[in-house]
Amino acid sequence: MSGSSAGSTRSLRSHGLTINPLDPWNPLPPPRTRKKAAVWTTEEEGALLDFLASHLSQAGDGNFKKATWNTAAAHMAHNHPPGPDNSDKTAESCERKFKALKKSYYAVANLKSVASGFAYDNEHGAMISLDNADLWDRYVKVMYQAHKDAKPFRNSGFPHFASVELLLPSHGRG
Predict the structure, then answer these.
(1) Which of 3, 16, 19, 114 has a beta carbon 3.0–4.6 Å from 30's, enabling a disulfide?
(2) Residue 60 belongs to a domain
(3) What share of residues in the chain are helix, strand, coil (percent, to 5)?
(4) What residues make up the domain containing 119?
(5) What does the buried/exposed string (b/e) look like for 144-160 if buried means 16 or more CB atoms within 10 Å of the residue's CB?
(6) 4 in any annotated domain
(7) Is 30 within the bounds of a domain?
């Protein structure tokens, strides 16, 4: 029985498996050791945007370099240390958060345009009521590919609109 585990004297634990107390012949898979995701508060998002604004000269083509993201992560760790239910704000998570904030910016800019057909206010979002709920649902669902990022702004504003706008290359810097 070469190549079979039937005659093996090695324990299942050496293979990263745990004995299933209910059925010792069917071991449990190893426990997942996935790292906790970084959870961002509005205050932390603002701190990241303020940091990036203070390093705007380092964004040559509108994108920040790896060194800036590393420095941003160190800044966040120093000024906003992670709590027990949160993970470190790594360079990668800082960059992902900025990309997500840019998506939100463009979704809100679209909502603010006359072409969207919605009124928009920075505090209350698109101010959707029962009167225009069907129109909103079509905007975010039927035209889902184009406007899916607008969904969170149904009745909530985007507090970072102006801060993100200042960081975009189209804002006239350079």
Answers:
(1) 16
(2) yes
(3) 50, 0, 45
(4) 42-167
(5) eeebebbeebbeebbeb
(6) no
(7) no
Amino acid at 74: A
Question: Mean pLDDT of all residues in the chain?
Answer: 80
Specify the pTM: 0.72
* Residue type present at position 118: F
37 residue type, one letter? A
Rounded mean pLDDT, 3-27: 57
Please tell me the distance from the alpha carbon of residue 54 to that of residue 51, in angstroms, as a whole number: 5
Number of H helices, E strands in the chain: 6, 0
Residue 104, in any domain of the structure: yes
Domain count, the chain: 1
pLDDT band at 110 (very low <50, low <70, confident <90, very high): confident
